[in-house]
Design brief:
Blueprint (H helix, E strand, L loop, with lengths): L2 H14 L6 H7 L3 H6 L9 H22 L5 H12 L1 H10 L10 H5 L6 H19 L1 H17 L2 H5 L3 H13 L4 E8 L6 E8 L2 E8 L2 H22 L5
Antiparallel strand pairs: 1-2, 2-3
Length: 243
């Protein structure tokens, strides 16, 4: 690793409040596969294995944090809050908070197509960063770093997190891409009357995108909308003219 790269990574360490014993882990966490494809530098690896591990570490740490912070919440509430915190959009936003895109090593093609601002790349890099901290110092340190990053989001209000309006976000994106709004329909419901689960199917422009399940129709619609936002993010990435 060159001196310039090492200095740049030190700046990121200061931003996240953690100094690596093995800075090579951090470098790998920020290396996209497109960079590997275009460079024959010996010994370098992309961040996909770290991303795989980071996804699991995030789930565990955020579950742990939510269990500690909200001892009265039931399993469904905890699951919903976790899904709101660890999906692509908030993880990409967390990456932008630290200007993570500016630290990424990308191939020229990915660079020219705006890869530094793609939600998918930023969220994957953030997951890889979490794995790098975990491998460098273990669970307790990874938990402490994530608690520092995510607790302010939770402190803004658990209720807001539980009822974040993905439907409104999806309607705006759908109108931008397809000039139409999403349609929701009840696909299934099961369970006893006092504990029903609803499954909502979501379609846009005569194409079924996703379905979502929840303990109420509104909750199921929000889950379907959240999944559709991730699908639409892929479409927008493939069509940069949409902004």
């Amino acid at each position: 690793m060159g001196a310039d790269r090492a200095e740049k990574l030190r700046m990121l360490e200061a931003e996240i409040g953690y100094t690596f014993s093995d800075r090579g882990l951090l470098d790998t966490a920020l290396t996209h596969r497109s960079f590997i494809n275009e460079n024959s530098e010996p010994g370098i690896m992309d961040n996909e294995r770290l991303e795989f591990l980071g996804d699991a570490v995030l789930d565990l740490c955020i579950s742990d944090l939510l269990m500690q912070k909200y001892p009265d919440f039931n399993e469904g509430q905890l699951s919903r809050m976790r899904s709101l915190l660890v999906n692509e959009h908030p993880l990409a936003a967390m990456g932008r908070k630290f200007s993570l895109g500016g630290y990424l090593r990308l191939g020229k093609g990915e660079e020219s197509s705006g890869g530094r601002e793609k939600n998918s790349i930023l969220s994957n890099a953030f997951e890889a960063l979490v794995a790098a901290v975990y491998l460098d110092s273990g669970y307790n340190t990874a938990f402490a770093v994530l608690k520092k990053l995510f607790e302010p989001l939770l402190d803004r209000g658990a209720t807001d997190m539980l009822f974040r309006d993905f439907k409104t976000q999806l309607q705006e994106v759908s109108q931008e891409l397809f000039k139409t709004i999403p349609r929701y329909s009840l696909k299934n419901e099961y369970g006893p009357d006092h504990d029903k689960t609803f499954v909502i199917q979501l379609a846009i422009a005569d194409r079924v995108f996703t379905s979502g399940a929840g303990k109420s129709k509104k909750e199921a619609e929000q889950e379907a909308a959240r999944k559709a936002l991730e699908e639409l993010d892929i479409i927008k990435s493939k069509n940069p003219s949409h902004g």
